[in-house]
Structure formats: structure tokens, C-alpha cells
Specification:
2 domains, mainly alpha, 12 helices
């Protein structure tokens, strides 16, 4: 599948809007390339029809290609997506390799997704998964929106909160695909049934998660406010708004996930 602007608009409207408004020219084109490549890998990893061993081999080959390109060596790209990331890396080699950390974090995320399939993860691992996604997204955002602004961990707090909300939003569909967006410790603490039936105990857990996520958004938006660059602040608030609406719908639905 080719991920053009229409695909980006459909799958991630905030990223599309930020690109349209604030990331122009070559940087806008490269931002779309990076999104397309990561989306392609994510779709492959999420495909329940593909065996885990095949997915791991695929990820190893992609990692090998990326390392090869960052080492300044040539690599025979096989499709649009590999050509796209090749162009991104070529640009990054001239810009202090800042996107290499983004790719490393996302590959750790993809590996975790492969390994957590059909199993309930420990709290620390699931929480770290959200933090890595928040970190990678924030680094990429700053690279394309404000290359002069150095990354600080506190800037990623809102992105971390957004992914926590994302896990709640996709809980039911992910469960159907054998991904479980809840930890072993939480199941024990809230006395949730093994089949994750949405009873009173389950709703207590959701309510507790919502409370924590709202607190993270509150702290995260304070950090966004401290950023001196307007377009970064606006994009950050835009993403917060998207997932705060998710949380509001969950509250309105009586903490039931649909």
C-alpha cells in the first residue's frame, strides 16, 4: 500500500495537519517517508496471519538495512518503503543522526509487539512500551518541526499519555488480535477475570487508568507550554486534544471499552 498524504490524513490527521501547516518542502516530504516506512512495518507486525518467526526475520532484515545505511554503506532497496527510509537516512546523516534514535526506539517497540502477542505482559514492560513510543514520536516531531530545539525527556510526557489513552481506545480490537493492553499486576490488583470480562472490577481498572492519564496530560501540557516555539506547542496541544476526547468518551460510556 502506498502511504500518500490522503493515507496520512485518514490514519493520523494530526500528523497530516502538522505536516501541511508547519513542515514544508523537503522536510515535509521526508516526514511523510518516515511515517510511511514505520506504518508499513507496523502493519506487517500486526498481521495475525504472519508467523512470529517470519516477523522476527523481517525485522532483523530491516534493522540490518538501517544499520548498513547509517554506516554509510550502500544497500539494495527492494520496494517503495525501503527507498523512502533510505532517503530519510541520507538526510539524517547530514543532521547529527538524530532520527537514528527514533528508529531504534520504534524497532524495540515492534519487537515487543511481536513478543507480547498471545501473552499478558508485566506492568513495567507495557509501561516502557508506551514511554518508548512517546519518546520516539516526540524526537521525530522536534526533528521536523524545530530542528534547533534540543530534545528533553519531559517534552515526551504528553505523547506518553496519548499512547496510554490509545491502548484503552484499542483495547477490544487488540484483544481480538491477541494483544492485551493490560498488565499481569493490574489483573491481580483489580481482581479482573482471566478472560478480561468487562465487569465492575474491570471498570474500576479503567477508571483508575483514566485518572492517571488525565494527570499525565495535565503535567504534559505544562511542559508543552514551556516550549518556546509556537508550531511545536500547537502540534502538541492538537495531539493532546485528540486523545483527551478518547478519554472523555470512555468516561461518558461508564468506563466500558468498546
Amino acid at each position: 500500500m502506498f502511504y500518500d498524504n490522503d493515507s496520512l490524513k485518514k490514519n493520523n490527521f494530526e500528523a497530516y495537519l502538522a505536516t501541511k501547516l508547519f513542515i514544508r518542502g523537503e522536510r515535509g516530504r521526508l516526514a511523510n517517508f518516515l511515517y510511511a516506512y514505520l506504518r508499513w512495518i507496523d502493519d506487517y507486525i500486526d498481521n495475525i496471519k504472519i508467523d512470529k518467526s517470519e516477523q522476527k526475520n523481517f525485522l532483523r532484515e530491516q534493522s540490518k538495512m538501517i544499520n548498513c545505511l547509517y554506516d554509510g554503506n550502500k544497500f539494495e532497496t527492494k520496494n517503495y518503503f525501503e527507498k523512502a527510509i533510505s532517503g530519510v537516512i541520507e538526510y539524517d546523516l547530514k543532521n547529527d543522526f538524530r532520527l537514528r534514535t527514533v528508529l531504534q526506539k520504534m524497532f524495540e517497540v515492534f519487537n515487543f509487539d511481536i513478543n507480547r502477542k498471545k501473552s499478558i505482559p508485566p506492568f513495567e514492560e507495557l509501561n516502557d512500551y508506551s514511554k518508548k513510543i512517546g519518546d520516539a514520536y516526540t524526537r521525530a516531531l522536534l526533528f521536523f518541526l524545530a530542528p534547533s530545539l534540543p530534545y528533553k525527556e519531559k517534552f515526551s510526557l504528553s505523547a506518553y499519555a496519548s499512547h496510554q489513552a490509545h491502548l484503552l481506545r484499542d483495547f477490544t480490537i487488540d484483544k481480538e488480535n491477541h494483544y492485551f493492553n493490560i498488565s499481569r499486576e493490574e489483573i491481580t490488583r483489580f481482581n479482573i477475570k482471566k478472560d478480561l470480562t468487562q465487569d465492575k472490577n474491570f471498570s474500576r481498572w479503567v477508571k483508575d487508568k483514566v485518572k492517571n492519564i488525565k494527570f499525565l496530560f495535565e503535567k504534559g501540557k505544562k511542559q508543552i507550554k514551556s516550549i518556546p516555539i509556537l508550531q511545536v506547542r500547537l502540534t502538541g496541544y492538537l495531539y493532546c486534544s485528540r486523545y483527551e476526547k478518547v478519554i472523555a468518551r470512555i468516561e461518558k460510556n461508564g468506563y466500558r471499552l468498546t
